[in-house]
C-alpha cells in the first residue's frame, strides 16, 4: 500500500510540474529544449506539436519538419545548447520567439509562435532555418512576423 501511495505522489507531482510549465510560453520552450537535449529533436518536435490539440502530430507537415531537421542535424555536429535571439510578446496571449540552437559546425534558428487561448500555451507555428549568410536582426523579425 505504501508503494502505491508513493507511486501516486510521484505521478501527481509529475503531472502538476508538466502542466505548470505549460502556463508560460517560456516553460513550453524550456521543456522543448530539455527534450531536445535529452531525447533528441524528433521527440522534441512530438512534444511541441502535442501542446496544440488542433494540430495532427502525424501530419505530412510535421513529418516534413522532422525529416528536414534530422537531415540538417546529421551534418552539423554535436548539439551544445541554445540562446534566445528575439522574444516578443503580443499582449498576454501570444509570443514569438527565435532561438539560436548551437551545434559544433553552425547554428540552427528556431522560431516559435505560441498562443494561449485559455490557461495553457500551445504552439501555433514552428519554423527552423540553417542559413546564416545574411544574419541581421531585421531578417529574424520579418520571419517571426510572417
What does the model show?
The structure is a single chain. The protein has five helices and four strands; from the N terminus they run H-H-H-H-E-E-E-E-H. It is α+β, with helices and mostly antiparallel strands and 146 residues long. The protein has a single domain (2-145), classed as Nuclear Transport Factor 2, Chain: A (Roll), CATH 3.10.450. Strands 1-2-3-4 form a four-stranded antiparallel sheet, with helices on both faces. It is globular, with a radius of gyration of 17 Å.
Features:
47% helix; alpha+beta; globular; 26% strand; 146 residues; Nuclear Transport Factor 2, Chain: A; 4 strands
Summary, kept brief:
By secondary structure, the protein is an alpha+beta fold. It has helices at 2-21, 25-39, 41-50, 60-73, 137-145, and strands at 79-90, 94-103, 108-115, 122-129. It has a 4-stranded antiparallel β-sheet, with helices on both faces.
Q: How far apart, in Å, are the first and last alpha carbons?
A: 55 Å
Q: Indicate the percent of residues in helices.
A: 40-55%
Beta-strand percentage range: 25-35%
Helical element count?
Answer: 5
List the helices and strands and how they pair.
Elements: H1 2-21, H2 25-39, H3 41-50, H4 60-73, E1 79-90, E2 94-103, E3 108-115, E4 122-129, H5 137-145
Antiparallel strand pairs: 1-2, 2-3, 3-4
Helix pairs in contact: 2-3, 3-4
